[in-house]
Design brief:
The complex is a heterodimer of chains A (297) and B (387). Chain A has 13 helices and no strands. Chain A is 74% helix and 0% strand. Chain A is mainly alpha-helical and 297 residues long. In chain A, helix 5 packs across helix 8. The N terminus of chain A is likely disordered. Chain A is globular, with a radius of gyration of 26 Å. Chain B has two domains: 252 residues, Rossmann fold (3-Layer(aba) Sandwich), CATH 3.40.50.300; 108 residues, Nucleic acid-binding proteins (OB fold (Dihydrolipoamide Acetyltransferase, E2P)). Chain B has a six-stranded mixed sheet with strand order 6-7-8-3-9-10, sandwiched between helices. In chain B, strands 13-12-11-14-20 form a five-stranded antiparallel sheet. In chain B, strand 4 and strand 5 form a beta hairpin. In chain B, helix 3 runs parallel beside helix 5. The two termini of chain B are 23 Å apart. The N terminus and C terminus of chain B are likely disordered. Classes of the chains: A mainly alpha (297), B alpha+beta (387). At the A-B interface, helix 9 and helix 10 of A face strand 6, helix 3 and helix 5 of B. Chain A: It holds the Pfam family BPD_transp_1.
Chain lengths: 297, 387
């Protein structure tokens, strides 16, 4: 009440903040928003605009759509796009299945250390992605433990495990690294689930499989969708894992940006690919927001 | 059967000893096995005994209330019937069949829990149909059975709603319909009314009583800490405390002839006075001689005298107790008088007094000898010395 009359008295300068708290009597609220916005604009939005601007600027100078036409026409871009999308989709699907199963076990199968495992999932989220790849290299890499055991045992010159440098290696690494990102929201959702529902369901004659399919899964869908879309976005932008597996044939969009910009100094093309990547990410992120808001997250 | 016992105006005959299990029955002719029998059921969690050698039989069609404070083992007993806890020893029988080793989904019981636990993503009709689908009921039969179950609880017009669109009382009806749709022989109700407000609760109590009249073959095990619910609904009440069965009998028996101090104070209010038996039919409260039925109690033994507050009268009479008024509570239709009699608190529920006595004034109370029950002194859980 007092705030409203106060702002009314200070006049038209604060019309935009009529409902703001009493502080607005002296300084309009939007003034406080200026410093962070300025910092954001300078450090983040400006470089981003430069990238977008560069993507419309061919080497010859001027402003045109030529870089886009060129990049879209190139086989390497289309390959990278396909690879990126299928790797991301595949990883996401893998993470969803693995994450759901693991979260189910952690949440509903009482075993000693279950709580510790759940907490480790949180810690895992803070690991850098290349660490996982590095660990996998130690095990399955060409001079890793698995191949070492094989060559040691058979005397062969070469081990049987070469998949790490193929798309499958990237897929494995991404699933390993991103699965906890699916488990986190799932575990939260499971902890909200009334165990009474599971008990009533089983008293009504439902076995474990039916309970999972008809009770747990439907109620976990929002969490699955939220976790899944988050992982999908992160997989699309993943760079460290692809780089560290050393998979030469696996070029994703971020890898393409890297090679265009750093190796070929073709900045226009790099920026085009980057813009495409940003567009896909932002689109998916919006989807994630919508889904997670519906999930109440 | 026990319902008839309850309607009898005279005090029921002495309760059977609760630790005597009924002889094994053959499976009844009802479609689902009815009746529950606990045979020495013990449940412990990590060495902590939460249910100690429970022997109890719920007859087909009987409503048995498991009454007790929290931690008394009553919910554990219910969960042992449902199959959610595995007894460390003892057997659980449903309709004469040993189900101790069966998983919950093979037991064919209906269950309603405190939180209702409706499936939030399913409509009311799909919630009710859940058990039918799990039991692989023919598809064509399901809509009819769902309608029938919803009709039974008066929720037929809500079939297309989601649980979140229903009030607590309505959700609870749907939960009951869901449990009854599979036509169980045994219905387990775990504190089903404790999440409802007082007015809804009394309405639902009447509703549950009506349901039971319409389903006379279903045995109901009703876990509650509320004595009113137990007294209102149950054919028999099993009183539990500290993991053990303390007492079992019809509500009337337990109320009028409790066998332990615990039962006396937990089922209804009670004045419990420490007395010494002075002869056949007479006891002493300190130096004050009182005339009460002493049964088999030997002279010289200490005992606890139990008198219900509403059976205590104001003024002189047989078994007069003189003391001072310590508190007067007006309760609308009654006054509750707290008095101090030789250092012992005594409560009297009196019809509303025109001029209630003032605090600190002397007061004389009395009770009829036949309204008093002599209990073994401070021996909850042991056999009583009832008349």
């Amino acid at each position: 009440m007092t705030a409203t009359t106060g702002t009314a008295r200070t006049g038209a300068a604060v019309t935009a903040t009529a409902a703001a708290p009493a502080r607005s009597r002296t300084v309009p609220a939007w003034v406080w928003a200026l410093p962070p916005v300025a910092v954001l604009a300078l450090a983040f939005l400006y470089p981003l605009t430069l990238v977008v601007q560069q993507s419309f600027t061919p080497d010859e100078g001027g402003l045109s759509l030529d870089p886009y036409a060129e990049v879209f026409a190139s086989a390497s871009f289309r390959d990278a796009l396909t690879t990126t999308v299928w790797l991301a989709l595949g990883s996401t699907a893998g993470c969803l299945v693995l994450g759901f199963v693991l979260a189910l076990v952690i949440a509903f199968v009482p075993f000693p250390g279950g709580k510790a495992v759940a907490r480790f999932v949180d810690v895992f989220l803070s690991f850098p992605s290349f660490l996982i790849t590095l660990a996998l290299l130690f095990i399955y890499g060409s001079v890793g433990m698995a191949n070492g055991l094989w060559t040691g045992a058979t005397g062969a010159a070469d081990g049987p495990f070469h998949f790490l440098t193929t798309p499958w290696g990237v897929l494995l690494a991404e699933i390993t690294y991103f699965t906890p990102f699916v488990m986190r929201p799932l575990l939260a959702a499971f902890s909200q689930l009334d165990t009474g529902q599971l008990e009533v369901a089983s008293s009504l004659g439902a076995g474990p499989v039916r309970i999972i399919r008809r009770v747990i899964l439907p109620e976990a869908l929002p969490a699955l969708a939220a976790g899944g879309s988050l992982v999908l976005v992160m997989c699309l932008n993943e760079f460290g894992i692809v780089l560290f597996t050393g998979a030469k044939g696996v070029t994703t969009l971020p890898m393409l940006v890297y090679s265009k910009a750093i190796l070929e100094s073709d900045y226009a093309a790099a920026c085009v690919v980057a813009v495409v990547n940003i567009a896909i990410s932002v689109g998916l992120y919006s989807l994630y927001r919508v889904v997670s808001r519906r999930a109440g997250a | 059967m026990s319902r008839a016992t309850r309607a009898t105006p005279t005090p029921a005959p002495a309760t059977p000893v609760p630790t005597a299990p009924a002889p094994g029955r053959s499976a009844p002719t009802a479609p689902a096995p009815s009746g529950i029998r606990f045979d020495g059921v013990t449940v412990s969690y990590g060495g902590n005994v939460v249910l100690d050698r429970l022997d109890l039989t719920v007859e087909p069609g009987e409503v048995m209330a498991l009454l007790g404070p929290s931690g008394s083992g009553k919910t554990t007993a219910l969960r042992a019937v449902a199959g959610f806890v595995r007894p460390a020893s003892g057997r659980v029988f449903l309709g004469g069949r040993d189900v101790t080793a069966l998983p919950p989904h093979r037991r064919g019981i209906g269950m309603v829990v405190q939180s209702y636990a409706l499936f939030p993503h399913l409509k009311v009709k799909d919630n009710v149909a859940f058990g039918l689908k799990a039991h692989r009921t023919p598809k064509a039969e399901i809509p009819g059975r769902v309608a029938e179950a919803l009709e039974l609880v008066g929720m037929a017009t809500y079939a297309e709603r989601h649980p979140r669109e229903l009030s607590g009382g309505q959700q609870q009806r749907v939960a009951i319909a869901r449990a009854l749709a599979i036509r169980p022989g045994v219905l387990l109700l775990d504190e089903p009314l404790s999440a409802l407000d007082a007015r809804l609760r009394s309405g639902m109590l009447a509703e549950l009583a009506r349901l039971h009249r319409e389903l006379p073959d279903v045995s109901i095990l009703y876990v509650t800490h509320d004595q009113v619910e137990a007294l209102t609904l149950a054919d028999r009440i099993a009183v539990m405390d500290r993991a053990r069965l303390q007492d079992c009998g019809t509500p009337r028996e337990l109320y009028r002839r409790p066998r332990t101090e615990f039962t006396a104070s937990f089922v209804g209010n009670a004045n419990l006075l420490p007395v010494t038996v002075t002869g056949d039919g007479s006891v002493g409260l300190g130096d004050r001689p009182l005339t009460v039925p002493t049964g088999t109690a030997a002279p010289g033994a200490t005992a606890t005298l139990c008198v219900r507050p509403h059976l205590v009268g104001l003024g002189a009479g047989p078994n007069a107790l003189t003391g001072t008024v310590t508190e007067v509570q007006w309760r609308g239709s009654t006054h509750r008088l707290h008095a101090d009699v030789d250092g012992h608190p005594v409560m009297a529920d009196l019809r509303e007094l025109r001029e209630p006595p003032a605090l600190g004034t002397p007061v004389t109370l009395h009770f009829a000898p036949e309204d008093a029950v002599l209990l073994p002194a401070g021996a909850a859980g042991t056999a009583g010395v009832g008349p």
